[in-house]
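// run 5 | inverse folding | seed 20
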């Protein structure tokens, strides 16, 4: 049995349902990216398209269009992939990675799933007149602005700051704070930074995640839904006029994530038939499906 925590907020931010300790700080990982992106806009970054804003708040799979867009963002501000602080990686998209390996191609910074966020961070530094050198240091003005923005959106102080897998600061928040922050984006006034991020992500889900990813497919399937996964079993989603869901699986695994998320989204009124593709995760044994992962009974209590 997967164990973890899940919170469902109403449209006004009140807790409608919770399971587990939703006040305990966790590391949201990439689920923090949508709110982080609003700090980049506030610093003066002006994306040239919704696709740029979406990938700046996303975790792409390294497909050709993802890498090309991240590189174009850097070129537009006079930088190159060498300026990225994220580590080199192979694409996460299976077919693209297989083609790279067959061709003997080495890992590249642009292929790392956070390169869009890093290109956006560097673009914000250029716009604000801040140094691009050292942009990942916690004391850098960009990272100070991000930390303050995350706390403000969550309605609580950042509990801890560590280093994420991409090299950027990672900020600990409670699940309730994480949900509150992402809910604020879909509830924001039109023309505001929060609404701009939400609109760009929902209009361009492939740049948020990539081919075959649940975030891409969920945003295409549920009108108005903003959803962002994070590493180590974290997911957050918000629906305007309905509320938000945030969850963390203690084991950091993936198999129970979407069934738990689907259970939370049903509490926001998303029809079960729409969520059916994500409500059960098949378990393989040999060449057959021998079981499935479903939501805990506690999520339906």
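// decoded
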């Amino acid at each position: 049995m997967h164990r973890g925590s899940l919170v469902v907020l109403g449209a006004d931010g009140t807790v409608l349902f919770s399971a587990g300790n939703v006040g305990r700080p966790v590391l949201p990982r990439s689920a923090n990216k949508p709110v982080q992106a609003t700090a980049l806009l506030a610093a003066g970054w002006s994306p040239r398209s919704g696709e740029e804003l979406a990938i700046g708040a996303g975790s792409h799979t390294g497909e050709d269009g993802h890498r090309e867009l991240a590189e174009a963002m850097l070129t537009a501000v006079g930088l190159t992939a060498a300026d990225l602080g994220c580590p080199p990686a192979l694409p996460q998209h299976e077919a693209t990675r297989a083609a790279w390996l067959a061709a003997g191609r080495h890992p590249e910074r642009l292929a790392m799933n956070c390169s869009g966020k890093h290109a956006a961070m560097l673009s914000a530094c250029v716009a604000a007149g801040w140094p691009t050198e050292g942009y990942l240091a916690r004391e850098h003005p960009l990272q100070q602005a991000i930390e303050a923005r995350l706390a403000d959106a969550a309605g609580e102080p950042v509990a801890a700051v560590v280093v994420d897998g991409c090299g950027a600061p990672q900020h600990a928040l409670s699940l309730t704070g994480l949900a509150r922050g992402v809910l604020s984006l879909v509830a924001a006034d039109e023309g505001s930074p929060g609404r701009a991020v939400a609109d760009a992500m929902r209009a361009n889900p492939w740049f948020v995640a990539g081919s075959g990813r649940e975030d891409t497919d969920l945003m295409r399937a549920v009108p108005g839904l903003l959803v962002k996964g994070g590493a180590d079993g974290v997911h957050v989603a918000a629906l305007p006029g309905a509320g938000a869901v945030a969850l963390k699986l203690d084991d950091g695994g993936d198999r129970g994530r979407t069934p738990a998320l689907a259970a939370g989204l049903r509490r926001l009124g998303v029809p079960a038939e729409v969520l059916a593709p994500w409500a059960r995760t098949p378990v393989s044994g040999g060449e057959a499906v021998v079981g499935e992962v479903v939501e805990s009974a506690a999520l339906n209590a």
